Amino acid sequence: MSSHTTPAGPAAGPRAARRRLIRELLLVAGFFTVYKAGRLLSTDRTEEAFRNAARIWDAERFLHLPGEGAIQRLLLHGDALVTTANTYYAGVHFPATALFLIWLYIRRPAHYLWTRRVLAGLTGAALALHLAFPLAPPRLLDAARLIDTAQVYGPTVYKAAPAEDTLANQFAAMPSLHFGWALMLALGMIAATSSRWRFLWLLHPLLTLLVIVGTANHYWLDAVVAAVLLWAALLLIPKPRTSEPDPDQGAGPAPDRRTGSEPGQDIPVQGLPRPRSADAAVGAGQ
């Protein structure tokens, strides 16, 4: 009995391709809807969220982590800089992840399935932690003495008062999925491409880390926990074994001019039957 291991399996016509695409869209949209609805279950746990925030703040000072205020002071050197950081926080997270998944679906289907599973595992674990450990962000914690840059300089995606925000849970700071998804985007692009410049993708999670801390939306430990959860997901979900060709690297080796065969390819001997291909052999046994 055959099964497709990638979204772009053997050609079965445009109708089958559309069905696969619709299935993937519904799957991703459904999972995201469940995640968003689940996060709202802890919006009314205000006192617990602020107690946890005080614990995280004290833990960071005990660990001698750099103060979040040091990054914020760098952003506050100019209105344009802090506004750009707020815009990056509000407008890059979801579109960048969506474009990343779309590109993988079209160009690297096996890596798409691997990435989708890793992101689902990371997001599911994050939802469980959001429910078990509600956490107010540093911009709401008086002890942090940080500015809510989005409210002061704009743009913002949150209401000024968490209790009035019916579309977002402001007490879901740990882990930071902004950082976790950005890190997976970078690792996914490094794994799926072969350019010598591919490690520059790591600038995206680095910039995201500076933005989420500098805008006082997250603590350093929010990013640390996100990285640990991502590491666990990567350990549990194996990377794709199939070797996908990189269209950006051009065609493969040129055929041998004397035989017309690819380098390293067996040349059929006259009078002997050609061996069946691996695909044909698998098909015959199904």
Verbal overview:
By secondary structure, the protein is an all-alpha fold. It is 56% helix and 0% strand. The chain has eleven helices and no strands. α5 packs antiparallel against α6 and α8 crosses α10. The termini are close together.
In short:
This protein is an all-alpha fold and 286 residues long. Helices cover 56% and strands 0% of the residues.
Poorly predicted tracts of residues? 1-5, 250-286
Please give the oligomerization state of what you see.
single chain
Number of strands: 0
Q: Secondary-structure element sequence?
A: HHHHHHHHHHH
By secondary-structure content and strand pairing, the structural class works out as mainly alpha
The helix content, as a percent range, equals 55-70%
